[in-house]
Amino acid sequence: MTESVFEVSNVDTDYDPTRSPHREDPFGFYAWSQQYQPVVWSDLVQAWLVTRYADIQRVAEDTATFSSSVAAPPLDKMVPAEVLEVLAAAGPPGKSVLQADPPEHATMRRIGQSVVQGPRINAAIPYMRQVAHELVDSAEADGARQIELVSQFSLEYVHRVLSTLVGVPAADMERVHAWNNAFLGLMAPSNSTAVKLELAQAFLEYETYLAELIAARRADPRDDMVSALIEVYDGDGIAAEESLPDMRMFVRGLYAGGIHTTKDAITSAVHVMLTTDGGAPWRKAGQDPASIPPMLEEVLRLEAPHRGLTRLALRDTTIGDVTIRAGEQVLLLFGAGNRDATKFLEPDLFQPGRDNIKQHMAFGHGIHQCLGRALARTEAREALTVLAQRLPGACLAPDYKPDYSPEFYFRGLSQLNLTW
């Protein structure tokens, strides 16, 4: 169970989740902000941080006032000119459904839903179970009774599942993982120009690879998401050279939004279940798989793996008593909204029986609610079911201390050492 260790009256109000104390515990800041300054300016991201559930909900639903064009930080806003010069060699960046406003959003979301669809996800469940069992078998090889869950299970599991669904060959998974991290690193406000210049070179390789993958699937379609994406665009009569930037963006989005978040959700769920009530939730999960979905939802609320998305004010407006000028950005901190005591009673407690548990914002809110949420939930549920049944006696390693990755937009443990 995760609870804030900081007094609200003595919290560091300069929010930066890549450094202490917010890296370990952002919840003290959330509580301070919600009580004293629910809309607070951040010099680091050059945006207003919004932390109350009702305010986040209102902004996310008001697409006429707040544009999603900056939902994920646009690279032309996040990198200096010399980095943009390198990136220009990749050609047009493509449009993202995450950054689309109505009416264009509806068309792009239709395309996404036709690719990331229920039947495709359900058909992959046996493979999810197979991969989960294989990874546990590997950890138990030679009689080992310990596992570092992030590197030996969660990360490998989500990469193998997503790559198989997308159509990325197993031999390319490691390279795609590195390229995905480079893409995300370009958007991180804390990375230096020198670092971003290196990441830009990796990004160019990523774009070339995706173009080659799309061309290969156009020539030889398979039962995967890339082939399905090509079928939709070609069916809409869009020329291949015109659709390529958007298709590359779509695949990048699948990895950018689907790896860290699901990996962190699985790891956080195991950690919370093992550290609550002496591990009682973990034991219950192993005995009753039906108890896992509500526990997963509560972990998604408690430890939202994605911190939030940005909106651009299209006209002067107010949030609470703060005036937001046209052209200013607001960062909707979904993780903060999930800890709002006016929405969730005793928000720091793990309570899977909450009546309003599915009203959490771990997958965002409004028309941009995550396209892959059904996939993420299914992946996490199947992984947790296998882990709880295979490792019923699991507990934290005696010397384990939680350490969170220094990521700005994602929250997750860097490692989780278990023994049994």
The mean pLDDT is 94
Low-confidence regions: 1-6
Per DSSP, the total helix count is 17
Question: What is the H/E string?
Answer: HEEHEHHHHHEHHHHHHHHEEEEHHEE
Q: Structural class per helix/strand content?
A: alpha+beta
The biggest sheet amounts to:
5 strands, mixed
Span between termini: 20 Å
Radius of gyration: 21 Å
β-strand percent reads 5-15%
Tell me the overall shape: globular
- Total beta-strand segments: 10
Layout of strands and helices, then pairs:
Blueprint: H1 27-36, E1 39-42, E2 47-50, H2 53-61, E3 66-67, H3 75-78, H4 81-87, H5 104-115, H6 118-123, H7 125-139, E4 146-148, H8 149-166, H9 173-187, H10 193-219, H11 225-235, H12 240-258, H13 260-275, H14 280-287, H15 292-302, E5 308-313, E6 317-319, E7 322-324, E8 329-333, H16 334-337, H17 373-390, E9 395-396, E10 417-419
Parallel strand pairs: 2-8
Antiparallel strand pairs: 1-2, 3-5, 4-10, 5-8, 6-7, 9-10
Short description:
By secondary structure, this protein is an alpha+beta fold. It is built from 17 helices and ten strands.
